[in-house]
Design goal:
Radius of gyration: 20 Å
Largest sheet: 2 strands, antiparallel
Strand order of the largest sheet: 1-2
Structural class: alpha+beta
Distance between the termini: 22 Å
Order of helices and strands: HHHHHHEEEE
Shape: globular
Number of strands: 4
Number of helices: 6
Strand content: 5-15%
Helix content: 40-55%
Length: 180
Amino acid sequence: MTRDKLSELTEVYKSLKDIRYRSEQDWKEVVRWISPRGGTFDPDTDPRYRNRDDRQSRLFDKTVYSYSNTFASGLKGYVCSSSSNFFSLSTKTPRDETEEVKGILQAREDQMYRAIASTTFYKATETLFKAFGNFGTAVMLMSFDREEMGFVFKSLPLGDCYLMRNRATGIIDVLFHVEW
């Protein structure tokens, strides 16, 4: 990475941090009531030193917390249940699918489901859908573990992430993650 690119990325990160600072107190309050043990909006503090026990003791009514968990479980069960197929493979034009092609696609689907089951995907989706329900967005990191020769999925705490939307497309295409 060139020095100019690094400087540019550092400036973008600082500007995103400044933008979020204006509403960060509101997000901290939301976290306090909706997800006392979950995500945090305190990216300047190492997670080991974030006082989570204190936040749980301030929770008086567990209704919102319970609804949040129920919503996340329902979404996970509907969108990507580990007990049923949640995607299928097909060709662009279904009329081109011969029995041989259908058999090959079905074999690949089965192979993909077995591969997904051997990863951390289903565990990561639990926290992903909870963050999605609580904040309207969530971040999942997918990487490849060269030692294990497999994919690793990890739901990232939203408070440790800074997202930037592409002005032309409206799609989030920049992610800064504060890693401890």
